């Protein structure tokens, strides 16, 4: 069975995944008592390796994803804190035209066309290919995104980095699931609509 490529991302109500400078710490206070267990059971694959260890789920087998793809802007914040392999439980691919090699052998750095590479990855058997971010990469990969899993936090940012940066080209998705949590967080799952 071919792998799927979901975009699993946190956003504000007004559609921003990070502050203008890339910071996303403002989401953290909205991790409520009912929301954290949801993340650790449903999306443990997508938790950073140190977070999995701290939560006692470091050895939990992957169930949704076996690969993560991200742009350099998404990879750099962890790297700045010394986290060279943020998702050690996954195959990690960073798209960058300026980073020649990764600082960790567990992280593949490539300047290959993201759309071409993700299409190849989708032909392989395995679990999902998690598009971790950012907006430019998401915009490039939009034709190959099978599912949007949007963790919407009860925040209005006003400005910042949007969910997607791309030319105007509407794609239709249908709401497949929604979950509401006590702190106002909502997880919306959209499946790509059939053509």
From TrEMBL:
One annotated GO biological process: riboflavin biosynthetic process
InterPro entries: DHFR-like_dom_sf (IPR024072), RibDG_C (IPR002734), Riboflavin_Biosynth_HTPR (IPR050765)
GO molecular function, one term: 5-amino-6-(5-phosphoribosylamino)uracil reductase activity
Domain (Bacterial bifunctional deaminase-reductase C-terminal): residue spans on this chain: 9-184
Pfam annotation, one family: RibD_C
Protein name (record): Deaminase
Species this protein is from: Streptomyces nigrescens
